[in-house]
Amino acid sequence: MATKRGDRKYSYHMETLNNLNITPHRDKIWMELITMNAGGLDVSGYNLVSEKGRIVAIGEGVVGFDIEDIVYVKAWGIDHVQIDGKDYYVVDISSKAILGKEKR
Fold this sequence. Notes:
The chain is mainly β. It has one helix at residues 12-19, and strands at residues 4-5, 8-9, 28-35, 50-58, 70-74, 78-83, 86-92, 98-101. It has a six-stranded antiparallel beta sheet with strand order 6-7-3-4-5-8. Strands 1-2 form a two-stranded antiparallel ribbon. A hairpin with a 2-residue loop joins strand 1 and strand 2.
């Protein structure tokens, strides 16, 4: 069952993160990757590679994005986190790595 925080709906994914006692830091977006163009995300020499992901959790200070938004992110701006065998990808909105989001 979805719950609300302000105007944002929490998805099953957010409830899963809450069960792990995780709240994204204020300017972080957690996502699941839909496409992984940079392979294992070793992007030391790639400035133009972008990834496509679905937002699963949003920090308190993030404005303009919602749970389930599809976003495009420069691969160098993504941190990988694995929790209980599940992969999550974290982006700091102040890094300027977010290229845009798909219109609904």
